[in-house]
Amino acid sequence: MQVTLRRLRKKLAQEEKGFTLIELLVVVVIIGVLVAIAIPTYLNYTKGAKNKSAQSDVRGAVSAVEQYYTENNNTYPPNADNNGNAGTNLSLTDGNAGTAAQTVTVSDGNTLFYRRMSNTHYNVCAQNADGQAIYYYNSAKGGSVKKWTGNMADCYGQAAT
């Protein structure tokens, strides 16, 4: 019995020295399926992160504008933007001595615009790094940061309606 088992083990060891082509193909297919699932999921996560970054920039700008308003005799700062230079910080100041300035930190890749529409309200618009989404805040309407469906120029020029 032991002789037969030894002979069988020796025979199996000589015949199986690697993977068959079918086994390798199965592994490649499994890896392909996993990659096909993982890449779109990853892309959705990065898209969501860019959108949240633009929303956060709008919220930060609103806070800075309101702080400027409070510190400067209830006057909103003049228009400001980062001139399309994505990721460049935004400075809110009128350039006069004794006027408190505010700086808005803009996330890498985002573009931010602030427009004083009148002495009573303003608009803040931010476009995310991949240019796929624009978020805005209109102080006349109040509420939360919302997604804008038009283009950036229309966003910061919107009326107070």
From TrEMBL:
Subcellular location: Membrane
Matching NCBIfam families: IV_pilin_GFxxxE
Membrane-topology annotation of the record: Single-pass membrane protein
Source organism of this protein record: Virgisporangium aliadipatigenens
Keyword set, alphabetical order: Membrane, Methylation, Transmembrane, Transmembrane helix
InterPro entries: Bac_GSPG_pilin, N_methyl_site, Pilin-like
Domain of life according to the entry: Bacteria
Family annotation (Gene3D superfamilies): Glycoprotein, Type 4 Pilin
One Gene Ontology term from the biological process aspect of the record: protein secretion by the type II secretion system
Record carries keyword Transmembrane helix: yes
PROSITE patterns assigned to the protein according to its UniProt record, in alphabetical order: PROKAR_NTER_METHYL (PS00409)
Any GO CC annotation of this UniProt entry: type II protein secretion system complex
Transmembrane residue ranges: 21-43
Protein name in the entry: Prepilin-type N-terminal cleavage/methylation domain-containing protein
